[in-house]
Amino acid sequence: MIRLTKKLLFAIEAVLDIAYNGGATPVRSADITERQGIPRRYLEPVLQELVRHRILIGIRGPSGGYRLARERRRVSVGDIVRTVRELGTAEDPISDPAGSALGHQVVRPLWVELEHEMMQRLDALTLEDLCTRAHRAGIEGRIAQGGDFEI
């Protein structure tokens, strides 16, 4: 079940920061912390998990940081949500055997259906879309609109 948590919001904001402010040079986690106000204790484990799921690439060394593993038009918000959801330890109430017939046969299936619809929407929403929204909102970024990936 998708729960809106600080960790999920921070993950989306961090990856969007990398997409919006990245480019040829990697984005340091300290810069993300400074720009977004995300505490490092939340940020580092999430960034590492995003590297393991090949959403980000971690670059070591003094000029290291993080870059997108794919073009921002090929990374969906749904990709980020799935990665962070795997980090969660909370029990999923949908799978709890306790409850009434109304709960199991009406309410829970409705919730599963709504979650499916939301994931479809999040899968259709890319980092490119969010970068465009940020640009339209007048938020300054390090890179120009359009050039987001280098081979």
Mean pLDDT: 88
Into which percent range does the helicity of residues fall?
A: 40-55%
Number of helices: 6
Biggest sheet, open or closed, and with what strands and sense?
2 strands, antiparallel
Strands of the widest sheet, in order across it, are: 1-2
Assess the beta-strand content as a share of residues.
Answer: 5-15%
Distance between the termini: 36 Å
Low-confidence stretches: none
What is the H/E order? HHHEEHHH
Radius of gyration: 17 Å
Strand runs, count: 2
Shape: elongated
Q: Which secondary-structure class do the elements indicate?
A: mainly alpha
Question: Strands, helices and their partners?
Answer:
Blueprint: H1 6-21, H2 29-36, H3 40-52, E1 56-59, E2 65-68, H4 77-87, H5 101-124, H6 127-136
Antiparallel strand pairs: 1-2
Helix pairs in contact: 1-3, 1-4, 1-6, 4-5
Task: Write a brief structural summary.
This protein has helices spanning 6-21, 29-36, 40-52, 77-87, 101-124, 127-136, and strands spanning 56-59, 65-68.
How would you describe this structure to a colleague?
The chain is mainly alpha-helical. Helix content is 54%, strand content 5%. Strands 1-2 form a two-stranded antiparallel sheet. Strand 1 and strand 2 form a beta hairpin. Helix 4 crosses helix 5 (101-124). The longest helix is centred in the C-terminal third of the chain and has 24 residues, at 101-124. The protein is elongated, with a radius of gyration of 17 Å. It starts with 5 loop residues before the first helix and ends in a 15-residue tail after the last helix.
